[in-house]
Amino acid sequence: MRLITLSGVAGAFALSALIVLPTSPVAQADPTADSQCWYNLTAPAVIEMPGGGQAVSAEIGMTHCTGLAQSVRTTACVTRSGDSGFCTTKNGYVPSTAYAPGSLHGNFTATGEGCYRVRSDLGLVCVPAGPISATL
C-alpha cells in the first residue's frame, strides 16, 4: 500500500504548475485595441426643407467601425456668427442633421461629435469633428 504524503502532493502540484502555467508573461492580443469608429461631418450648406423653406444644415454620420466597436450616438451642430447654434443628437448608427433657420447669409460653422462603445467596455469614446466654416 502506497501512502501519499502532503509533501508529495505539493511537489506534484508545483511540477504541474511549471508545465501548465507560463513562467513569464505572454502578450495576449487585446480585441479592443484596434476597435474604433470614424465619422464624417459635412460643411454648412443651404438646403431645401419640406414645404419649400430653406435652412442651413450640417450633418455627421458614422462611416465605419472596426473590431468590436459600435456607434452609439452622433451630434451635429451648426452655428451662425453671433448666435448659440442649433444641435441635433441621434442614437445608434443614424446620422444627425442640424438646421439653422432664419437668415441664409453669413458665416456658419459646423461641429459634431460621434460616440462609440466597444462591446466589452461600458465607457464611451467620443470623437470630435470640425469645426468646418463656410460663408454663404
Description:
The structure is a single chain. Strands 1, 2, 3 and 6 form a four-stranded antiparallel sheet that branches. This protein has one helix spanning 6-20, and strands spanning 37-41, 45-48, 54-65, 69-80, 86-91, 96-100, 107-118, 124-135. The chain starts with 5 loop residues before the first helix and ends with a strand. A hairpin with a 5-residue loop joins strand 7 and strand 8. It is elongated and about 45 Å long. The chain has one domain (37-135): Immunoglobulin-like. Helices cover 11% and strands 50% of the residues. 24% of the residues are buried. The protein has 136 residues and is mainly β.
Number of helices: 1
What percentage of amino acids are in beta strands? over 45%
Oligomer classification: single chain
**Low-confidence runs of at least 5 consecutive residues:** 12-32
